[in-house]
Write a structure and sequence with these properties.
The protein is an alpha+beta fold. It has helices at residues 53-60, 80-88, 141-148, and strands at residues 2-7, 34-35, 44-50, 68-75, 91-92, 95-96, 101-105, 127-134, 153-161, 164-165, 174-177. It has 2 domains: 1-64 and 163-179, Alpha-Beta Plaits (2-Layer Sandwich), CATH 3.30.70.580; 67-161, Alpha-Beta Plaits.
């Protein structure tokens, strides 16, 4: 089985937490499923959960080339040099990344839900939206990549993993797929 879940901001990608923070258990009632990949607590969007270990491996292992696509709100304006650097791959502390696919999105997508709490707005600091796809899954990779090219991430929403899209799932909603 495969569950598509729109993980809200502030929710941990685990089922328990000793500190009492929001977890997957607050949203997912299906037993014996596990997250196939992770999203940081401060990231939102598509998370896949499954009870099939082989499927989880195919989703998460970079050798299977499952792309992950994100909408990323960044601080600053995306200049061509920054976009080119992302397209070529950037060097992070844990080594170079593979090239990313990236494009500027003219404005925040109309269908996108408001974040709670909202991203801090600063009238004197520009921001823009990117659509960015990667094939790796390092810890906080997209945030580190955008920061490396001078575009700190303000909001990060995963919209696609491989062939699976978030579609019209709202934060906290899930959809069960049979595999």
């Amino acid at each position: 089985m495969l569950i598509l879940f729109n993980k809200p901001f502030g929710v941990l990608c685990q089922f328990t937490d000793r500190e009492g923070r929001a977890t997957l258990a607050d949203y997912i009632r299906q037993k014996n499923v596990y997250a196939a990949g992770r999203l940081d607590r401060d990231s939102e969007g598509l998370l896949l959960l499954t009870d099939d270990g082989a499927l989880a491996h195919r989703i998460t292992d970079p050798r299977h080339k499952q792309s992950k696509t994100y909408y990323v709100q960044v601080e600053g304006r995306a200049e061509p040099a920054a976009l080119d650097a992302l397209r070529k791959g950037v060097v992070l502390k844990d080594g170079p990344t593979l090239p990313a696919r990236v494009r500027v999105i003219d404005d925040k997508p109309d269908w996108l839900w408001p974040r709670d709490p909202p991203v801090r707005f600063r009238k004197s600091v520009a921001d823009c939206w990117l659509e960015l796809s990667i094939h790796e899954g390092r810890n906080r990779q997209v945030r580190r990549m955008t920061a490396a090219v001078g575009l700190p991430t303000l909001r990060l929403i995963r919209i696609r993993v491989g062939d699976h899209e978030i579609g019209n799932l709202q934060p906290g909603q899930s959809r069960l797929l049979r595999t």
